[in-house]
């Protein structure tokens, strides 16, 4: 008995050491393959799989984050979350998103979390804080040698969003994935700081992801789908506060024509956010899921003490349906989702289409539906192999404007000229982690034996802030400056006796990093850029109590 305890104690100390010193990265153990396996095997659960976290007890056996049950009775339970250590290493430049409290950095960073879950009848408390430690080495950002004219274009973005490239002020402690909840049958309400994911996308989602730290909010939601004769319904409603990073953009003293490029943001950076997502699986269309999501955000000091001020998501969709909308100094994000499963879960396609600006009315939307648009499209296909299941995923994410000239002013995604901290929390975008104006294409192959025994390979192509590229370099025909990251990655998820392991390693070649090029290049009109090679490695270790 004592020998067994000593082994487990040694294993725990060893994992603590590894998590602080290994070449690593990740989010809080990746549930990606568990969810894929659940979706494939449970096509009749009535879940749309377009809003997370999922809370149905039937998911317990698929979660790679089990709890240690201390007390388990009919009307009372108390459990402890297994300690988890998440470490990231980036060799040359920041890489990674959908990682919650973690920040863009070079070097190491570590996130540690544990906690407890208590339930008494319909009342429950989940306390799961997160501790962040960061090695924040310097790295190359937008070059100071660039002209004032280029910096002026760059500040068009800096002045409308709080999304720093390099963080100098790092918060160490977050309440993390915590909540207090009351549950009645299939509905629940409470207070939470959990991350949420809205939409069918695998690597990106436009309205809500776990890219930024979770924020304090009240919620009302379905715990499980509500089944009716016409189909099943799910929803999540939230209202809460989001905050600024406190960071200044670089080179704030720069001027052009004696006008300072930097425009100071309000000292009170607290913003109010109100969101609603609905999903519907019609009973008359097998495998089809439809959804719609809507989010408003504005400075808390500008919020009116009216029904529309507190709950704008229930107002009119078009701008002409509201009174003095521009004077309310708020921004709306609207997204619609579609997912269709085929062959009893052996394949599916999904689409998200969103807008970052109100249409004035239905005529305006019909005449110009792609104004301020973004979209995500993907496909999954499953193949049965002798010992594993192969899942092939292809996904395309597009947050940039069209390269064609459009006389209508179009904002960068997640930015706003009145809410100049943008759609961010503590400096990180609440939506797609690739960031404003960017695009991504990915191909992934997962070889799944079980939810906790799988491995995979993937290739990403990421176009960094194409909107800035179009504005800054196309007028001078410097089309060779586009910043593109090509990523080759390997991942593994494995369960051992005393711990769960989830790890991946990324080899990244950044072409024209920070839109730089080599002025001495002799390669004709396609000049050679300044390229860098970056290693991004990640590991998440979860100790089994």
What's the structural blueprint in terms of helices and strands?
Blueprint: H1 2-21, H2 32-41, E1 51-52, E2 67-72, E3 76-90, E4 107-120, E5 123-127, E6 130-134, H3 148-158, E7 173-174, E8 179-184, E9 187-192, E10 197-198, E11 217-222, E12 226-228, E13 231-242, E14 255-256, E15 259-260, E16 271-282, E17 288-299, H4 307-310, E18 330-342, E19 347-355, H5 362-367, E20 373-384, E21 389-398, E22 424-425, E23 428-429, E24 439-450, E25 453-463, H6 466-473, E26 484-495, E27 499-511, E28 532-543
Antiparallel strand pairs: 1-10, 2-3, 3-4, 3-28, 4-5, 4-6, 5-8, 6-7, 8-9, 9-11, 11-13, 12-13, 13-16, 14-15, 16-17, 17-18, 18-19, 19-20, 20-21, 21-24, 22-23, 24-25, 25-26, 26-27, 27-28
Helix pairs in contact: 3-6
Number of β-strand runs: 28
Helical segment count: 6
Report the end-to-end length measured between terminal Cα atoms.
Answer: 15 Å
Query: Which class best fits the helix and strand makeup?
Result: mainly beta
- Mean residue pLDDT: 87
Helix content: 10-25%
Number of domains: 1
CATH topology: Porin
Report the CATH superfamily.
Capsule assembly protein Wzi
Q: Which ranges are low-confidence, i.e. pLDDT below 50, for 5 or more consecutive residues? A: 5-30
Q: What are the defining features of this structure?
A:
single chain, 545 residues, mainly beta, Porin, 18-stranded antiparallel beta barrel, two-stranded antiparallel sheet, 6 helices, 28 strands
Describe it for me?
With 545 residues, the protein is mostly beta strands. The protein has a single domain (2-62, 83-114, 129-543), classed as Capsule assembly protein Wzi (Porin). It contains six helices and 28 strands. It has an 18-stranded antiparallel barrel. A two-stranded antiparallel sheet has the order 1-10. The protein has a two-stranded antiparallel ribbon with strand order 14-15. A hairpin with a 2-residue loop joins strand 4 and strand 5. Helix 3 (148-158) runs antiparallel to helix 6 (466-473). The protein is globular. It starts with a helix and ends with a strand. The model is unreliable at 5-30 (pLDDT under 50).
């Amino acid at each position: 008995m004592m020998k067994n305890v000593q082994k487990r104690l040694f294993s725990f100390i060893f994992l603590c050491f590894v998590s602080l010193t290994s070449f690593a990265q990740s989010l809080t153990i990746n549930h990606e393959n568990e969810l894929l396996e659940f979706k494939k095997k449970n096509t009749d659960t009535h879940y749309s799989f377009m809003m997370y976290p999922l809370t149905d007890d039937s998911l317990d056996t698929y979660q790679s984050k089990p709890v240690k049950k201390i007390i388990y009775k009919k009307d009372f339970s108390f459990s402890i979350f297994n300690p988890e250590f998440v470490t990231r290493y980036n060799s040359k430049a920041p890489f990674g998103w959908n990682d919650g409290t973690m920040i863009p950095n070079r070097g190491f960073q570590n996130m540690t979390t544990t906690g407890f879950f208590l339930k008494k009848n319909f009342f429950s408390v989940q306390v799961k804080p997160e501790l962040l430690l960061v090695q924040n080495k310097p790295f190359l950002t937008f070059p100071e040698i660039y002209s004032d004219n280029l910096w002026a274009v760059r500040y068009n973005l800096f002045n409308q969003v709080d999304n720093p490239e390099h963080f100098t002020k790092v918060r160490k402690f977050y309440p993390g994935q915590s909540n207090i909840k009351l549950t009645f049958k299939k509905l629940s309400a409470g207070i939470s700081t959990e991350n949420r994911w809205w939409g069918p996308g695998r690597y990106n989602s436009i309205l809500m992801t776990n890219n930024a730290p979770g924020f304090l909010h009240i919620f009302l939601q379905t715990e499980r789908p509500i089944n009716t004769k016409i189909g099943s319904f799910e929803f999540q409603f939230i209202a809460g506060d989001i905050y600024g990073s406190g960071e200044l953009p670089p080179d704030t003293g720069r001027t052009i024509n004696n006008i300072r490029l930097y425009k100071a943001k309000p000292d009170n950076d607290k913003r109010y956010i109100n969101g609603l997502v609905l999903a519907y699986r019609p009973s008359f269309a097998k495998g089809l899921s439809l959804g719609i999501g809507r989010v408003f955000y504005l400075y808390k000091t500008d919020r009116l003490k009216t029904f529309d001020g507190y709950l704008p998501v229930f107002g009119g969709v078009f701008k002409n349906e509201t009174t003095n909308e521009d004077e309310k100094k708020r921004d709306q994000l609207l997204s619609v989702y579609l997912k269709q499963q085929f062959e009893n879960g052996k394949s599916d396609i999904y689409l998200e289409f969103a807008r970052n600006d109100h249409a004035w009315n239905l005529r305006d939307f019909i005449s110009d539906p792609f104004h301020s648009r973004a979209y995500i499209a993907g496909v999954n296909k499953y193949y049965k192999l002798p010992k594993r299941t192969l899942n092939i995923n292809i996904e395309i994410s597009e947050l940039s404007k069209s390269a064609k000239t459009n006389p209508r002013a179009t904002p960068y995604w997640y930015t706003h000229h009145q809410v100049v901290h943008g759609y961010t929390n503590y400096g990180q975008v609440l939506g797609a982690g690739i960031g404003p104006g960017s695009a991504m294409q990915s191909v992934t192959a997962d070889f799944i034996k079980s939810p906790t025994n799988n491995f995979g390979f993937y290739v990403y192509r990421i176009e960094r802030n194409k909107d800035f590229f179009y504005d800054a370099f196309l007028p001078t025909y410097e089309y060779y400056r586009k910043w593109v990251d090509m990523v080759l990655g390997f991942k593994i998820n494995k369960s051992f006796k005393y711990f769960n392991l989830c790890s991946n390693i990324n080899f990244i070649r950044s072409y024209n990093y920070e839109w730089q090029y080599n002025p001495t290049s002799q390669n004709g009109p396609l000049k050679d850029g300044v390229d860098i090679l970056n290693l991004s490695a990640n590991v998440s270790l979860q100790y089994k109590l």
